Structures are given as structure tokens and as C-alpha cells.
Amino acid sequence: MSVEVSVVVRYRKAVTYGVNALLGALETAKAECDLRLGTTPEETAEHIAASPADRVLVLWSFYSPDAEAMAAELATVRALADDPRVLHVAGGVHATAEPQQVIDAGWDLAAIGEGEPTIVALVEALRADRPLTAVPGLAVRDGDGRALRTPPAPQLPLDAFPSFPDRRRHFGPIEITRGCAYTCRFCQTPFMFGGRFRHRSVDSVREHVRRMAAHGLRDVRFITPTSLSYGTQGPEPALDAVEELLAGVKEELPANGRVFFGWRRSGRTCPGTGGSCGRADRLQ
Asked: In this structure, are residues 265 and 278 in contact, taking their beta carbons and an 8 Å threshold?
């Protein structure tokens, strides 16, 4: 007998791109469920209480500077919606680095590493009423409150999942590269995603842009650790690959479409480009 699962997201502007990727993964894997977005702790609790599902999975994502504030929000949500159907799972960089701290702060689960394979496997396990220890990429609270790690989730090609689901309200930048070969000690990217580049194919990027254009969108931006490393594994830019990418995007856009490609300055210099690491969305 299948168990009905509802997903409630503590939806914040700071983590929308990551949440979009998770929703896209669920859609692609045909594992979509009843979905509710809570923009405040109170609204999140209301969604939990209103869900008719047998199990309610509440997704949280945050960086380390937000961990204390998010733990306070979690306590608020639990006080307002103390429900045995609910599992609260924290993901993102802080949960990956400090799963025991996340468990100690009150979350039931910590998602470690890349979230797409884990969220799909987690929803499927809940639906089939299988043990969560069979889900890869998790730290699971045991009876003594310890964070027991499951095997790591696989790092799949970027083309395996989209950057966002096929819904207008969730569109955003397209992730074209994940991971980084430069392994700078100040940077979280190689720690979480690995010390090599994985690039989204031009065909996949064009499909994203086609979907956006079909909904009337005309601006395209990207997510990448270092924009000029697209298509390469080494220190030299693959300018032919970059040109193919940008030309393909322009072909999918209307005449008034715009492509933004570059970096956002962060005060750190990236050895791959000589510029700053960050989102590729500042140069037109």
C-alpha cells in the first residue's frame, strides 16, 4: 500500500535556487507530491497542519550564518505543528558540514551533499514505507540522538536533473557547471560538489531556455563557480565551448532576449578566471 507524502518547504529568498533544483528533480523523476511553500515559520506550520497526507516532509536549507536563526524557526514550527507525521530535513552547505550539529538542533534528518538524488530517494522511501537508512546521502537521528550516516548519494551528470521545474513561478538561473577543480580553501564548492567540473550540455541549456521563452521570459542568467571554465577541466578557458553555449542560448530567445554571463565580485580571486567566484549573472 502506497503512503501519501506531502512536501512543505520553508521557502526563503536566500535558498530559492537550491529549492528549485529539488523541485525539478522530483518532477523529472515523476516523484512529485502535494507541495506547499511556507514563507514564514507560521505559514510553514499552517501548511503542515493542513496537509491531508500520511507523511509530511519539511525541507529546510541554509548557510552556517543562518543556522541559529533557522533552529529558532524550527522550534517555532514544531511548537505550532507538533505532528507525528512530520519529518524535518535540513540540507545545504551547513547540513553537509555539520550533520551532528543539525541533528542536535532539532532536525530529524540532515541531507549531505547534492540534494537531487537524495530527495527523490527519500520521497520514494516514505511512499513505500521503507527504512530511511536505505536512502543515500542522509544523516539519520538514531535512538541516542546520534547522526548516523547512510552511504553517499551518487554525483550524477548535470543533465540528469533540471535547474528548475517546468513551472513559471519557479524559473531562475540555469546551473551550467557544478564542482570546481581549483579547490580553494576558502570556498565551499569543491567541499560539497567535488574537485572537478561537471558541465551541463548545450542541448540541456537550450531546453531550459526554450521552456523559459515559452512562458514569455526573455532574460537568461547562469549559476557556475567560474564562468569561463565552462566546457573545460583545466586552467585554460574553452572559448569555443563558451561561444557554442552563448550562441545556442541566443538562438532560443526572442529578438529582445538578453543573456547575462560573467561573475559577481565576492572579494576573492578565482584562479580559473582571474576574477571573482560566484553566480554568472553580472555581465551582459
From this structure: yes
In this predicted structure, the answer to whether residue 246 has a pLDDT above a threshold of 90 is yes
Give the 3-state DSSP-derived string for the chain, with helices as H, strands as E and coil as C.
Answer: CCCCEEEEEECCHHHHHHHHHHHHHHHHCCCCCEEEEECCHHHHHHHHHHCCCCEEEEEEECCHHHHHHHHHHHHHHHHHCCCCCEEEEEECHHHHHCHHHHHHCCCCEEECCCHHHHHHHHHHHHHHCCCHHHCCCEEEECCCCCEEECCCCCCCCHHHCCCCCCCHHHCCCEECEECCCCCCCCCCHHHHHCCCCEECCHHHHHHHHHHHHHCCCCEECEECCCHHHCCCCCCCCCHHHHHHHHHHHHHHCCCCCEECCCCCCCCCECCCCCCECCCECCCC
Rounded distance between C-alpha atoms, residue 54 and residue 229, angstroms: 46
**pLDDT for the residue numbered 219:** 96
* pLDDT over threshold 70, residue 140: yes
Predicted local confidence at residue 263, as pLDDT: 55
Radius of gyration of the chain (CA): 19
273 CB-side CA count, 13 A: 22
Residues 6+ apart with CB under 8 A from 75: 106
